[in-house]
Amino acid sequence: MRIAGFGSAWLLLVASCSPGTGSATSNACGSVDGCGGDLSGSWNFVESCSNPSLVAERYSERICSLLTLVSATSTVAGSVIFTDQSYALSVTTSSTIRFSLPAACQLAGATCDAVVGSVSGQLDGPASVVCSKVEASCECTIDFQASKLTDTGSYATSGSTLLASGAFGNWQYCVQEDHLHLMTLDASSGTEQLASDWVATRNP
Question: Domain-by-domain residue ranges, the chain?
Answer without folding.
Answer: 3-202
